[in-house]
Design a protein that fits this description.
Structural class: alpha+beta
Largest sheet: 3 strands, antiparallel
Low-confidence stretches: none
Number of helices: 2
Mean pLDDT: 89
Oligomer: single chain
Number of strands: 3
Strand order of the largest sheet: 1-2-3
Length: 73
Amino acid sequence: MLILSRKVDEKIVIGNEITITIIDIKGDQVKIGVDAPKNVKVFRQEVYDEIQMENKLAATTGDLKDLGKQLGL
């Protein structure tokens, strides 16, 4: 893992097409902006984990009703 220090308005460039900008820092919270092509999906980790779990559940069930029950819907 690469660890970098940045200040507000400073950027990090990933490859040729992704730029991360530090927007604001308040206490232990950092606001960042991500500039990436539309074909690059960007998720918060907890959202990504939920999507992966739902995909695994969908792959293991043949019935959408069962999937809804497993997800508590």
